[in-house]
Write a structure and sequence with these properties.
Helices cover about 5% and strands about 40% of the residues. By secondary structure, it is mainly beta. The strands form 2 sheets. A 5-stranded antiparallel β-sheet has the order 5-4-3-6-7, with helices on one face. Strands 1-2 form a two-stranded antiparallel ribbon. Strand 4 and strand 5 form a beta hairpin. The chain has 2 domains: about 55 residues, no CATH class; about 80 residues, no CATH class. Bound molecules: zinc ion (ZN). Zinc ion binds next to loops. The site of zinc ion has 8 residues, from loops.
Length: about 160
C-alpha cells in the first residue's frame, strides 16, 4: 500500500499545512474515532435521544443538541456513485498523482465525498465497490511537561475492492 501521508514534511512539522487532525484525547473529544480506525472500524456517534447519526462524529447532536451520544459502527464497504480524478497539480501533502475522489453511497447510511487510494486513473467507475482503507500519517509532536513525544496518527480513505 502506498503511503499517502505528508512525508515531504518529514521531520518538519508545519501545523498550517497539516491535512490531518490532532487525534489524542488532549486535543480532540472525538479521538475515539481514530482509535476505532486503527481497529479497522468506521464509526460515528449516534444520538440516544433523537436517533440522529451525523458524520463526522460529534460530541453534541447537531439536530437536538443532546450530548447523550454513543459510538456506533458504520459499513466499511460502499458503492461508487461518481468519480473525479486529478492527474496533475495535486496539492502538497497528497503525495503523487493521481488524486482520486469519489462520491460513495455507504449502504444507504450516508452519501459522501471521500478520497480513494490504491487506485489508478480510469480504474474506478460508477457502481464499483470500495472499502475502508486506514493508513498512517506523520506523527504529531506533542509536549508532555518538558518532553516532546511524537504521537502516531492514522487517517482514512477508501480503496477499490479487488
Ligand atoms: Zn439528537
Amino acid at each position: 500500500m502506498s503511503t499517502p501521508g505528508i512525508s515531504i514534511l518529514d521531520g518538519k512539522y508545519m501545523v498550517t499545512m497539516d491535512l490531518f487532525p490532532q487525534q489524542s484525547k488532549e486535543f480532540n473529544q472525538i479521538y475515539k474515532f481514530y482509535e476505532y480506525l486503527k481497529e479497522g472500524r468506521f464509526t460515528t456517534t449516534k444520538c440516544k435521544d433523537c436517533g440522529s447519526e451525523p458524520f463526522p462524529p460529534r460530541v453534541m447532536c447537531p439536530d437536538c443538541y443532546s450530548t447523550n451520544v454513543e459510538w456506533i459502527d458504520w459499513p466499511t464497504i460502499g458503492t461508487v456513485i461518481d468519480v473525479t480524478e486529478e492527474a496533475v497539480g495535486v496539492p502538497l501533502g497528497f503525495g503523487k498523482p493521481p488524486l482520486v475522489h469519489a462520491l460513495v453511497d455507504l449502504d444507504g447510511k450516508k452519501t459522501f465525498f471521500v478520497r480513494i487510494i490504491n487506485c489508478k486513473t480510469g480504474e474506478l467507475k460508477s457502481g464499483d465497490k470500495v472499502k475502508l482503507a486506514v493508513f498512517d500519517v506523520d506523527p504529531v509532536p506533542q509536549e508532555f511537561g518538558r518532553e516532546v513525544i511524537n504521537i502516531p496518527r492514522v487517517f482514512y480513505a477508501f480503496e477499490p475492492v479487488k
